[in-house]
Amino acid sequence: EGVPNVVCAGIANVSGTGPFAFASREQSVLTTADFDEIRVDDTVEFTGNQDYWGGAPGIETLKVVRYESADQIKEALLDGSLDVMWGDGVLPSNTITDIAAMNNPSLNVHVGEDIQNVVLLLNTARPPLDDIRVRKAIIHAIDKKALVKKELGGFTDPVDNVFPRSMPYCDVDLTPHWDYDLEKAILLSCKLETASASAAAVEKATADNKALTIGLGIGLSFVALLAAAVAIIFMRKAKSLEAEYVTSKSAVEA
Questions:
Q1: CA 1 to chain centre
Q2: Beta-sheet strand order (sheet of 20-31)
Q3: Which residues make Cβ contacts (< 8 Å) with residue 246, sequence separation at least 6?
Q4: Could you write out the DSSP letters of every residue in 224-241?
């Protein structure tokens, strides 16, 4: 309470000391899947900074353009309206492979060093992935080399490390290596099925034993109750006969 509301004015002006200076921008409003409206840059134009401390750049005008799809980017590269496409994931790997295979003298493909690895993570906290045998079967069943060649254009290499070897302290071999081995994956799967069937059989046998124990308990209790009832009947009959005998004997003596 008592604290005034602070309203930020936003970016009042563009300032910097780089080789390019901001010149203009064109924006549009997009509607998201949640029906929210967001403002995006369609084109941002920069001019060479003649006062740049490192010397004026050789490019007079630099335009950063937003495209709706990867197909539009490819088309712009091929028709010459786009000079440079930069960054990972902008174009599919197979598209880059296709462009490189065109042998177009006006198009060059350069691949830099890896700065991160693409990793498929398994949730080991939930079944069935909490069983290391299942994880081993999955890893041995995936042919990473064939996947990289077919789906990723061959621009990447299969890795065993979480971080690239070029990162500090990451140039180490992790053992054991979980290589593609379909026979081993099948063997592990068979062992898992056998273990699962054995566990199910043991569980069923345990349940049957419990049922047998309960059945025997109920059966023996019923027999014991029946024997007790017969004994009581015989005891009552014996007392009745004894009472008749005493009464008869007293009458004879009288």
A1: 45
A2: 20-31, 37-48, 61-65
A3: none
A4: HHHHHHHHHHHHHHHHHH
Amino acid at 193: E
Mean per-residue pLDDT for 177-204?
75
Q: Are 145 and 159 in contact (CB under 8 A)?
A: no
Distance CA 39, CA 43 (A): 12
Angle at 12 between CA 8 and CA 14, to 5 degrees: 135
Can you tell me the distance from the alpha carbon of 26 to that of 97, in angstroms, rounded to the nearest whole number?
A: 32
Which of the residue ranges 29-33, 65-69, 165-169 has the most confident prediction, judged by mean pLDDT? 65-69
63 beta partners: 45
Q: CA-to-CA distance for 90 and 70, rounded, in angstroms? A: 7
Q: Which two tokens stand for residue 120?
A: 């498929």
Span 68-85, average pLDDT: 94
DSSP structure string for 45-58: EEEE-TT-TT---S
Q: Are the beta carbons of 65 and 82 closer than 8 angstroms?
A: yes
